[in-house]
Amino acid sequence: MRPTLLLAALPSLLVAQESVTTLKDQKALAVTIYNDNLALVKDTREVRLPKGESRLAFQEVSAQIRPETALLRNLTHPKDFWVAEQNFDFDLLTPQKLLEKYVGEKVTVVRSVPNESGAGAKEVREEATVLATNNGTVLQFADRIETSIPGRLIFPKVPGNLRARPTLVISLNSGADREQKLELSYLTGGLSWRADYVANLAPDEKTLDLSGWVTLTNQSGAAYPNATLQLVAGDVNRTQPRAERVYEMAGLAPKAAPPAPRMAEESLFEYHLYTLDRPTTLAVNQTKQVALLSASAVPVRKEYLLQGQTYYYTGSYGDLGDKQKVGVFVEFDNKEASRLGMPLPKGIIRVYKRDSEGRAQFVGEDSVDHTPKNELVRLKLGDAFDVTARRKQTDYKSLGKQGKFGFVHESAFEIELKNAKKEPITVTVLEPMPGDWEVLQSSHPCTKAAAGTGKFQVTVPAEGKAMLTYRVRVRW
After folding, report:
1. 188-207 pLDDT, tens per residue?
2. What is the DSSP secondary-structure string of 199-250?
């Protein structure tokens, strides 16, 4: 049977002139969360301070507070107000911690023994000194030593350095004896956010509806009730953080609600700031979602892409593989003309399309980086099932050195593209070619997509096939 621990009439061991403030004193709370497990908390409370020097126990701060970033400001009576010292007490009150703090100290052991009459039981109290708590408890009684707790323990008081919750203890000087409004700001770990997007493709795959959600996770060890919530999107430079405690997340994300109006957005330095239009509560160990944006009928383009490899052009390879994968991409413009035009925080876009019965089916996802307005959003959703490719090198020769070029190669290729769909498609073939390259001959026009990339556009008929042939010379 596990022993029970009783705290008898707990007098505080805290020094005189210590004021305590909890969430009941809170007047305002603002939380700004960054992408990389970092948040700025501004906690405003109304506290009565005595005039002169005293200590303030600022309770219910984040368990992952970075104490070196804490700043306490007096908003009511800043004259003659200053902070002399700050201590973060994170050694929290638990039965085991309390026992450890009493090593070398006396406690009272209470156990039940039968009455001499044999009816019922009575309590017997003995004093004992706690000798050790490593891998078990060792107690020294007046006439013996025991290695287990024979009953429940009574402790006379709670040690001053053991707190029931994370507490920032601040030694300060106040210029007035009155109620004062104090603002504590600090950086903390354990708060994070990410953007998640849901895109629904239209039946003709020419437009999509896009909903953006912010997923918030609170693992900081503190709650943030009715907070003004702001999110910063961008890569903020930080020095190497020290090791932080990791808290396990409990629960699952709630089901998404119908889209709400988009969050207000503004530029902040070289980042973007998003502000929720209403207060929200971030509970301990909670993941929640709030609406970020909503857009309908965004024009979208679909592309089938076959990607080559640089090494194809530097040696003899023959048959380079049957049924090579043809990737499927969709892209859209983040412009007002496309019914968007809002800076998009980095996140994952999941794409759905309805089947013949009207049920939404998942068709792929891709991650996007921070995307400013007027930029292109391009997503790879997977590889086509009904579109395949076979590539073969039909000729190769090494032409030795030519002038400043140490290697000159000439290769010929054929690519057979098959389409099992009931409608014609266009496949983009991108060929990365090394060095100084030149297409000598081709069945389809070749354009220079980039300095080292040739691009072919091949139309493949419905339930048919098309052949791309070309010869290229590379010098490097």
Report:
1. 999 999 999 999 999 999 99
2. EEE-TTSSEEEEEEEEEEEE-SSS-EEEEEEEEEES----PPPPP-------
In a domain, 9, yes or no: yes
The dihedral formed by the CA atoms of 114, 117, 118 and 120, expressed in degrees to the nearest 10: -60
Kindly state whether residue 202 falls inside one of the protein's structural domains. no
Q: Which residue has the higher pLDDT, 91 or 297?
A: 297
* Radius of gyration of the chain measured on its C-alpha atoms: 34
**Which of 155, 174, 198 is the last residue in one of the domains?**
155
How crowded is residue 431: how many other Cβ atoms within 10 Å of its Cβ? 25
* Percent of the chain residues past pLDDT 90, beyond the cut: 67
Kind of pairing, strands 191-201 and 347-354? parallel
Domain residues for the domain of 15 are 5-92+162-188
Q: pLDDT at position 3, please?
A: 47
Residues 103 and 65 in one domain: no
State if pTM tops 0.85: no
Decide which of 110, 131, 155 is a domain's last residue: 155
Same domain for 322 and 175, yes or no, is no
- Count of other CB atoms within 10 angstroms of residue 330: 22
Residue range 30-60, pLDDT digits in tens: 999 998 789 999 999 999 999 999 999 999 9
Examine the pLDDT at 11 and tell me if it is beyond 50: no
Q: Which two tokens stand for residue 472?
A: 């290229």
- CA 10, CA 100: separation in Å to the nearest integer? 17
